Every structure is written in structure tokens, then in C-alpha cells.
């Protein structure tokens, strides 16, 4: 068991935050407009959906396979390779240009592998350098940095892309991301080499789900429910903003405003949101995340999408911080679980992947019958209710002292 400490961040947690900040910045610069770049070549929601499916399949499989590397060998090299492969992805997008739409599956798989390698290593290191006392603080800072980069990155990218003709702006932004990923690799060398674990248990996720007393029988479906919303909303909201406005600069403005709001809400959450508030806060957040979608019933335009974006920025910390922190707290409830932290991180990601795939595939299937905006709106309302289901699944784990066994 980890010993308790005051809610403070040390040098290693700050360095890890810096690496995360660079990766999020690069994603804010390029990732925000990646699906728009593909959309401009072919206006097809299903194509973007299959690109997401390819990513998520690769992410889940990479987490499971790379778990052995991260536990038994050098997890920092997995983190660096993940950053490097993400850079390679953008290099290939630059190379194939508008023909990228013909390589949706290989490009999606490559990006998924890169994301999987980075995040399994990051999540394990994150668990090792934080404890239950400072985990909410760390997550608050992650959200804060994400908001800052979300303010600067998309606004700058959207402005540049709109000013330059053709795909020149996209090429400049993708190249900038390559440079930032390189800086992330360099900074990662200042993180201490982490200790190796024991032998990797390939079937530990299955074992946890079979164990009737395991809290993961509650957490796993909660994470899957979280993933249902994430899988679709991660690409759909930005795409809808572009479709509604036809301007990259408007999408950049949208990200600037919503991220500025997130900056404040994540700062407040990191400062004041305590473990004792997790259950009530998560329920309120989940309900209000659905309520802010209601204006879309009347009309989908920049204004209603902006209302959705601002509302999401305000209420997301209430929902997501308890979900993230309580999941990682389960990995520290005993010495046995600490030893299994890599396998539990894999179980966490596989659960999210199942939800993301389910949400995205439902989206693709429904749109194969009807592509009307009203259909998309109804889908958003249905899939957007999944955070409430997530709270129902994990509410027993959010109570202090109730995370060890169900």
C-alpha cells in the first residue's frame, strides 16, 4: 500500500505533467483538425467513424500486448515509441495528402498503436508517481493544461489554416506537431527509469471480471459506459461545428472559448473537489452533461453547439475526475493490486475500448439508414446519456472506504 502524503506534486509528477502537456498541445494543434482534413476530401460520417474504429481496436490490442513490455521491461521506452509513432503518423499524412481517405484503416491502426503505447506507459507511471491524496490534484492539473493548450492550439491552427490557401496551413500545423512530439521524447528522458514489475499475467483482466468480489465488476461496465459517449463525441462535435460554419477559424474559436471555460472549471475542481464529493459530484455532472444537449433538438448551428461546448466544459470535471481517480485508486487498495497495476491499467483501457467501439458502431449503423441531422441529434441524446449509466455502475465505489471489495 502507498503511504499517505499531503496533496502536493513532486518533481517527477511535474515532469510527467510537462510531457503530457506537450502531447496534448500537439493534439490540440493537429488532432482538432485531422477529421476535418479527412472530411474535406470526402464528406462521409461513416468514413470518420471507421477511422475511429480502427484507432480504438488498435489501442485496445496494443494495451493488452504492450502490457508485457511495460511490466517486465522498460516502460519509458514504450512511452517514447508511442510519441515517435504519433509523429510518424503525421509524417505519413503529410506524405499522402488528400489521398489519406484511401488509407483510413492503416492510418487509424498506426495512430491507435501509437496512442496505446504512450498511454499504457503514461498511465502506469502516473499511478506510480501519484497516490490517493494527490491524484485529484494531478488530474485537475492535467485538465488545466489540456484547457490551456486547447485555448491556444486550435485557435492558432484554425486561424492559420483559414488564412492560407489549399492545404498549406494543414501541412504547417502537422509539421509543427512533428517537432513538438520530438520535444516530448527529449523531455521524457528526464523522467526516472521506473522499476520493473513481476511476470505479466495475460488473462488478469478476465480473472478480475470473473471474481464475484472484484470491484472491477462494477468499474469495468462503468468505464464502458463512459466510452460510449467518448467514442462518438470525440470526433463528432468538432466535425459538426465545421459542417455548420464551413470555417476552420470558427472551429478554432469554438475550441478557444470552450477550453477557456475548462481552464477555470478544472482549476476549481483540482483545488476544491475532494474524494468525499465524488458520488454526488459525478451524478450532477452526468445529468447536466445530458441537459446541455437539449437545445440541439430545436436547431443545430454554431450557437447551440457552442452552448453544448460551454456546458460540457463546465460540468465535465464533476463527472470525469471521480471516474478517473476512483479507477486508479482501485489499483492501490492492496499490495497485490499494486503488483498488478499494469494488468489493471490494461483492463481499464479495454473497458473503455468496448464502450467506444459500441458507441461508434451504433453511430455508423444508424447513419447507414438515415443521415439527416435530426437522426444525428437523436443519436447524440441517446449516446450522451451514457455518463448517467456510468454513475449507476460505479456509485458504490465512490463512497470513501468502499473501493476494496464489492
From TrEMBL:
Organism: Paenibacillus rhizosphaerae
CDD domains in the cross-refs: MFS
Keyword Repeat: no
Main location: membrane
SUPFAM superfamilies for this protein: MFS general substrate transporter
Membrane topology listed for this record: Multi-pass membrane protein
Alphabetically ordered keywords of this record: Membrane, Transmembrane, Transmembrane helix
A molecular function GO annotation: transmembrane transporter activity
Membrane-spanning parts: 12-39, 45-66, 78-97, 103-126, 138-164, 170-191, 276-296, 302-321, 350-370, 376-398
GO CC annotations on file: plasma membrane
Localization terms from the record: Cell membrane
Pfam families: MFS_1 (PF07690)
Name of protein: MFS transporter
